[in-house]
Design a protein that fits this description.
By secondary structure, this protein is of the alpha+beta class. It has helices at residues 33-44, 52-59, 70-88, 108-115, and strands at 7-10, 13-16, 21-24, 27-30, 93-98, 102-107. The strands form two sheets. A four-stranded antiparallel sheet has the order 1-2-3-4, with helices on one face. Strands 5-6 form a two-stranded antiparallel sheet.
């Protein structure tokens, strides 16, 4: 089993693996278990692309625990996470979808600074 890091950071977001709290400068929320595991899988990649099946494998480490429609469960969690992120970090950080490839985090503040 992969060892979890106590705290993951991406842009202005921090995810605490002990409390399952996602924190931003404008608020924090304790995530439900699956939402937390999806966010952890995405944040661990630090902006690199993760397919839905890769995220599902990380969330449900044992095939017998994986729900029949795990891809739907992953997408549902991402929708909830995007809603929270929109309220707390606005357009600075986002979960982006690359059609038919997967998801990744984008720190738009860094992109804007790189352009200037």
């Amino acid at each position: 089993m992969e060892e979890t890091m106590p705290r993951l950071t991406f842009g202005q977001m921090q995810l605490d693996s002990e409390t399952q709290i996602l924190s931003t400068p404008r608020g924090s929320v304790r995530l439900a278990r699956n939402d937390f595991l999806v966010m952890q899988a995405i944040m661990r990649r630090n902006g690199r692309l993760a397919s839905v099946s890769e995220i599902a494998e990380e969330v449900w480490q044992y095939p017998r625990n994986e729900p029949e429609f795990s891809n739907v469960a992953v997408r549902r969690s991402i929708k909830k996470l995007r809603g929270f992120m929109e309220l707390t970090v606005g357009s600075q950080c986002a979960i982006r979808c690359e059609r038919d490839c997967g998801y990744h985090l984008v720190n738009r503040q860094v992109v804007m600074e790189d352009v200037a």
